[in-house]
Amino acid sequence: MAQFPNKPFISGFFDNRLSNTVGVPVQSSAKRYALFMRPDVLLQFGELRTFFALVGLLTILISILFFLISTRYIVKPITRLTEATKRLAQGHYNLRLATGRRDEIGQLAEHFMTMTGELERVDQARQQFVSNVSHEIQSPLAAIQGFAKVLAQHDLPKEEREQYAAIVEAESRHLSMLSKQLLLLSTLDQGEDALNKKRFTLSSHVRQAAEMLQWQLEEKELLLKLSVPDSIAIDGDEVLLMQVWTNLLGNAANHIPPGRAIEVRAEQTQSFTRIVIADTGEGIAAEHLPFLFDRFYRIDRARERASGRTGLGLAIVKKIVQLHGGSIEVDSALGVGTRFTVTLPQL
Question: Does domain 117-188 match CATH 1.20.1250.20?
């Protein structure tokens, strides 16, 4: 059998050739005969070929059926995801997808739901921001418009005229501050491209911020303690970080009673620089702490609005610190004081 030539799917041993024939001598009476035997390939393999053909056909049918089922199992969630994407593009964020699957499609659906929730949160924040900006602009504009009409009266006493003019000036100053801070926030939203980093000494930077608030500290007889070693140097944007120190020190000076103290201390390691600004004021209630860095959030809205503050200061501070790759935390206790901790990474 090994000497016969072979072809694909056909063995030469079963060819209809003389070499495949077996001869047997047969003796019958006085005569001698020869019996030749040759295998009948069709008879031997006909049923086997039919069996293999049926097996192949059934394999193809089962494969097609399995392919259709598996395709539907894979394509159906993708189709749902496509429809959900279209609805999301139309502004519908209340979407629900099955996230019980543990394969890649299940992970994709889970990430899509996370993204949808984040987009909904961002959209709500944007709407709230627009509403707050509109309110912040509308209030001083209405006051300016109303007092401008009163000032147009010729028989208005001088004292009232001066009083109303001072109110118009204060509201105009409030609008100017609001526009500057909104412009700054817009610039900071561009990311690290808004930074002009260079290396500088932290102690001189903090002292400069304290000098800018010296009149306020002296007016309320506040004690300022600086514990910032001259050896500490950081990499960052001097102008933006100056706003961080002046804002945090200014908030402390504005909110603590006269005669109290403010302390600024810093420490540096190989990986980070930590700056702590603490005061001995009345503290902040725990329910306000999670929202301190939200835009336009005020603890005492009437008092803050009357002081001309916009409620954007701490939001700007957090944004600046985050752009520098750092973090800011706040701890406070009623009757004890408030402490802001700024952590900046070492480059």
Answer: no
